[in-house]
Structure prediction request, 308 residues.
Amino acid sequence: MGKSSKDKRDVYYRLAKEEGWRARSAFKLLQINEDYNIFEGVKKVVDLCAAPGSWSQVLSRKLRGDNEDTNNVKIVAVDLQAMAPIPGVIQIQGDITKTSTADEIIGHFEGEQADLVVCDGAPDVTGLHDIDEYIQAQLLLAALNITTHVLKSGGTFVAKIFRGKDVSLLYSQLKIFFPNVSVFKPRSSRNSSIEAFVVCSGYSPPDGYTPNMSNPLLDHKYDLDYNNLTGPNRVIVPFLACGDLSGFDSDKTYPLQLPGRDYEYHAPTQSPIDPPYKEACQLRKTDKLAKPEKQIKTSSDTDNNTYI
Ligand code: SAM
Prediction:
């Protein structure tokens, strides 16, 4: 959280300090809940990309509150960065794109499932929009991968998303797992930012889907594993190669005279109307395109007049 005068003029920055939140992002989760009621009946949550911890604070206050019986409440928070402790929050320091981190999260649930997974993951932005959007999408997909391992049927997934030009591909991927996918821009999220949050409810993976942490970008065994996948775990788009050995090979060049086919010149069916090389053709026809002879001074030159 910054300390510049611009920060001080940001009302959510000031409010966060007044209310004891570690970051102004707390209001984003609170406002998502105001509109979507995502905390209703929730006891077990995973907070991905959680540092410095304002979302975990919100979860801790909302789910545990003053409740004496907090035994049933489980909040697991994960981030690359270390985080100061928060009451009732189990912390894991790790990379959410790594299988080992996913395994650690799953381990904390001891066979039980989460009601809600939230992810406020953002890369260190480079300023190169295409790259930032791509990395953010990869974080979201890593979060979705983990979610498929821990979320109960009917559960909810909330994640930050950058509304870049390819965002509809992500929406389609989310729709495979959730019947309800909507995008929400909380009041506390700056209008100048392309960030928004997907709120996906009613988790229901395709029949026969088996959660699988393989990521082709990170896991070099992916090709091997992928070949073993079956049913809805592997989508194969048909590839049809046309032709057979008796046809022409489009990568080969052939002599003008082919057996049984005399070569005859045919003018182009339609010549280009105004080709960019028209002027060069004209110049060549009138012999005006010849390169000037190189002027090389010989060793016998004395007066700069003799050239070859
Ligand atoms: N929700 C947090 C809060 O309210 O305090 C703020 C999250 S901050 C916007 C984004 C976080 O994503 C950073 O703390 C960063 O370390 C984390 N992050 C980025 N890539 C990550 C990764 N691959 N694995 C785990 N955390 C990651």
